[in-house]
Amino acid sequence: MSTVSIPKVYPAHFKPDFSATREWLKQHWQEHVGKWVVLDGNRLIGEGDDPRPIVAAARVEGVTAPFVEFIRDESEPFMGGWY
To answer: Distance between CA 20 and CA 41 in Å, rounded?
Structure first.
């Protein structure tokens, strides 16, 4: 009977702090409704209809953990359910 070797898993030592990002979103979300935004802390890297090229550009800049968010208009009530 052969044994299967399971690789050892190590805990991640990187824990991103998104507090600056959350503050930026609170202050600027109205300017970007209906768009994807990519942030590095409180710095806007870019916005658009597709976040993938913006994330790729962020990685080229050396951003290790870009924050990606679709901005919805929170002022209108959610209307879900059956017709």
So the answer is: 5
**Torsion, CA 20, CA 26, CA 30, CA 31, rounded to 10:** -20
How do the domains of the chain map onto residue ranges? 19-70
Q: Residue 10: what residue type?
A: Y
Token digits of residue 39: 């942030």
For residues 25 and 48, give the distance between their C-alpha atoms in angstroms, rounded to a whole number. 15
Per-residue pLDDT reduced to its tens digit, 29-71: 999 999 999 999 999 999 999 999 999 999 999 998 899 999 9
Distance CA 22, CA 52 (A): 21
**Would you call 19 helix, strand, or coil by DSSP?**
helix
